[in-house]
Amino acid sequence: MRFARTRRILLPILAAFSIGAGSLPLAPSAANAASSLPFDDISSSYARDDITALAAKGIVGGTSERLFEPGKTVTRAEFAAILVRAFGLEETNNAIAAFQDVKSSQWFYGAVQAASNLELVSGTSATAYQPLVTITREQAAVILARALKLNGASSSASGFVDFPSISSWAQSSVGAAVKAGLFKGDENGAFRPTSKLTRAEIAVLFHRIVLNKAWESQFAATSGSMLQIGWQYGQTLAEYKASIGKSAVNTLAPRVFFLDSAGSITDNTDSALLTWAASKGKKVWGMFGNRFNAETTHAMLSSTANRQQVVAQTAALADKYGIDGVNLDFENVIAGDRYYMTLFVQELATALHKAKMVLSVNVSPDLGTDWTDAFDYEAIGEAADHVVLMAYDEHWGGSPIAGSVSSLPWMKSGLDTLLESIPSSKTIMALPFFTRDWTTGSAVSSTEMTIAEQNALIGSLAAADKSWNAALGQYVYAYKKGQTTHRIWTEESRSLTAKIRESLQSGATGFAYWYIGGESPDVWPSVRNAVKYESFRFE
C-alpha cells in the first residue's frame, strides 16, 4: 500500500509506532527540498511526503503558517476535522449541538457535528466529546473502521504481542484496520493501543487512505444526481428561488394545479418560475392537489366523464408549460373510491407518458386505517413513475397523544411496508422540515413550527431539558412556560441525517422535502453529506 523507499535512519517515533511510513528518498539538497515544502519543520520527518501530499489537498494544515509540528499529538477534535476533509464531506454547523463541550464558537464545531451526524465519531458520554483530549491508536482504529465500513475480526490483530492490552471494544476494529493495511505494529511486534498518535503518524495514516484510488475517487465525487424534490409552500417566488438556490434540490414542485370542481382544475402556474428553473438546469413537477376535499374528489373520481376531463386538462396544461412531470397530491380520499382512484392514476399516467412526462404520486404510510384505504399501493406503483412516501404526521396536529412528527422506527416501518408493494427504484422518501411544540397537561395540544422556528424557540429558552433519543433518532426537549410543560421532538440536521441514511439503506432512491423554506442553513450540508456517505463503497 505504501511506496518502496530508500532506507534511512528511522526516527524514534517511527520505531515506536510503525504506523506505516517507510524511509524517505534522498533529496537533491536540503536547501532545495526545504524551499519546496509547505512547512519548515518537516524536511527530516519520515512523514514528509505524506504531510506534503495531504497539505496540497487541504486535508491537513499547519499549527502556524510555516510550522507543522509533526511530533505533536492529535486531539479528538483534530482527528474529526481531518476525517471530514479526507472524505470530502462538508462541515455542518448544526443548530443543536451534539455535545456540551463542543461549542459553536470553536473552530472544530462544524467538523465534529458533521462526523457525529454520520455516526463516524461518538462521545465519551451522552453529552461530552472531550475534543481536546489526545486520540490513541485503538481509538483511531475504531473510528476509521467504522467510517470506512470495514469488516474484520479480532483475529487479524491477535498476532501483536500486546494483543491482550487492546480494549475488548476495539479488538475487532483494530483487526479490520490492520487487515486493510492502515496500521502495523512496531519493531517489537506491538500495537501499542493506548499510545497517542502524532501529527506525523496521522498524516501517514490518512495518506494511506487517500492513496486508495477507488476510495479517493468517491471522496472527490459530488453527492450525485439523486432525485431531490422541493415543495413550494408559503413563500413568494423570490423567496422560493432563493431557498432553492441554497439547497440540494434538483426538482421543483410548485403547487400549480388544484381540483376545485368535479370536472375541472384551476391553474396557478407561474411561468417566471419555469423560466428560472430551466436556466438553473432544474426540473419541474407541477403539484396537483385536491385541497383535502373528499366530496369534490369523489365526484370527480366516480364519474368517467369527469375523470377523463380532468386527466385531459392536466396533461394539456402540463404540456402547455413544458414541465417535466406532475406530482399528484390527493389526500383525504374516501375509502370507497379505491377502485376509481386507481383508475385515475392509471389514466393520468398514460396521458402524461404520451407527452414524455412523468407522474409521481404522494402517499401516506399504510397503517391499516381508512386514511389510506383508498390507495392501492401496488397498482399505483405499477402505473406511476415514482411513489412519494410522506413520512410525517406520525403524531398529527390533533393527536390525543404528544409525540414525534416522524420518529426513525415509524418512518422505517412505513418504508418497509411500502417496499412490499412498490419497487425501491420508484420509491421517494418525503421528509419533514417542520415539527410540533406540544403541551402536555390535562389536555394535549400542539403548535406546528418549521425547523427554523423550532431553532429560534429553543435558542430563546432560559432553561430546558435536552436529550438525544437514539431509538427515535431525535433530540427531545422539555421546558416549562408558566405552569405548563412543553415538549418538542425535534427535526434538525442530525435527525434528518438519520432518516436519509436509513432510507437509503432500505432502498429508497430519492427524497422530497415538505416544505422548502422551513429548514435552517445547516440542513443542506447535512443532507449532502448523508447522501454522499451512503454512496461510499469501500470493499
Tell me what the structure shows:
The chain is an alpha/beta fold and 539 residues long. The protein has a domain at 12-220. Helix content is 37%, strand content 16%. The protein is built from 19 helices and 15 strands. The chain has helices at 12-17, 30-35, 48-56, 76-86, 109-117, 137-147, 171-179, 199-211, 213-220, 237-245, 271-279, 294-301, 304-321, 338-354, 377-383, 408-419, 451-460, 493-506, 523-535; strands at 227-231, 251-253, 255-261, 264-267, 283-289, 325-329, 358-363, 386-390, 427-432, 434-440, 444-450, 465-469, 474-481, 484-489, 510-514. An 8-stranded parallel beta barrel has the order 1-2-5-6-7-8-9-15, surrounded by 5 helices. Strands 11-10-14-13-12 form a 5-stranded antiparallel beta sheet. Helix 6 (137-147) crosses helix 7 (171-179), helix 13 (304-321) packs parallel to helix 14 (338-354) and helix 18 (493-506) packs parallel to helix 19 (523-535). The longest helix has 18 residues, at 304-321. The protein is elongated and about 85 Å long.
